[in-house]
Amino acid sequence: MKTVKIGIVGVGNIGSFHMRNVLGGELQQAELVALCDTNPAKLQRVADEYGDRFKLYDQVDSLLQDPEVDAIIIATPHYDHPVIAIEGLKAGKHVLVEKPAGVYTKKVREMIEESEKHPELTLSLVYNQRMNPTYQKAKELVASGQIGELRRTNWIITNWYRSQSYYNSGGWRATWKGEGGGVLLNQDPHQLDLWQWICGMPARIFAFGYYGKRREVEVETEVTAYCEYENGATGVFVTTTTETPGTNRFEIVGSQGKIVIEEEQLKFWRTVMDEKEWNETYTGGFGEPEVWEIKIPVEFDGNTGHLKVTQNFINNILFGEKLMAPATDGIYGLSISNAIHLSSWQHRWVELPIDEDLFLEELNQRIEGSQDKAVEEKVLNTENTY
Ligand SMILES: NC(=O)c1ccc[n+]([C@@H]2O[C@H](COP(=O)([O-])OP(=O)(O)OC[C@H]3O[C@@H](n4cnc5c(N)ncnc54)[C@H](O)[C@@H]3O)[C@@H](O)[C@H]2O)c1
Fold it and tell me: Cβ–Cβ contacts within 10 Å for residue 315, how many?
């Protein structure tokens, strides 16, 4: 196979972005052959612009029966991600799933089980932020022991501002039944993934979620989560969509160094001696180990990584290139997200792995009480989103 023939499921904001990426020619050895959307107006929009250049389907089943389609990109709202991925795999298609992998881990686990039955098919996730070299370098520094033993992590991610008009642009948005959560499920899947990708999984979480704070929505718009790791390290994750100017600062502290990623720059400091050893041997009272600021040669090129993660998916299908974001990894960040919700709903510590049935029971109660909302459905420009 020289070219991967792609079908996109969901031609809204990000589906249209994927469509332009494939059509733009920057993606190598990929061809767009079909599009699917359950909303006729979205298909009409494509037909108005491109005529009969692509096959248009109003049901995913029909697209999956199309033998010309080798691979699908799933760009629908989150609940359907694992559901369509499972159907896609069963139909023999390679699958690239938008983030998050799903809304609850139990369903994502089913997707992983299905993928294990199809080792010949690629299942990848649009964790485009994994392509950002600053996060890749932070991962390398932590994994190679450059900061010593992990002691503290702190991520303040408040610069993905969302207005009420954004929330009003789609009926599914920010509802329990349509989206299954707010900032944790929509904006933060990237950071929750990178947090665990770089620092490992926390052992337990206590979180405070604020629902409908400063926006007329059912779901959380602000969260502060505190976590503990197996080795005694601690972490804090602070997020909201309602703050401006916002902050995106990720700080990782170890027994022998500190990494800070902010303003797309990575900074790295190292003590000449591990703090534990220094403390055990130093006798001078006040004082602390000598610290070196070390210049790390890494620069973010402004690329949001969508093209790179999609090309990696294509290259994995064609040449077996190592996947940067296997969709099976999607369960980790989602586990943290589910644990944060569960803790904030029940006002208690939640151990990981979480009780998946209990989480689903709690989520279902919220889905039952979920309200329809009047919206003016729009396709928004995703050019400056991540
Ligand atoms: N990786 C990123 O940077 C990024 C950025 C934006 C959105 N996303 C993700 O992409 C997904 C879609 O977000 P969006 O903002 O594009 O939403 P959107 O509402 O603009 O688009 C979703 C589209 O899917 C269609 N759809 C719904 N159910 C369908 C089904 N069963 N079959 C076919 N089509 C269906 C809708 O009609 C709509 O056109 C979300 O899960 C979101 O988290 C990822």
Answer: 17
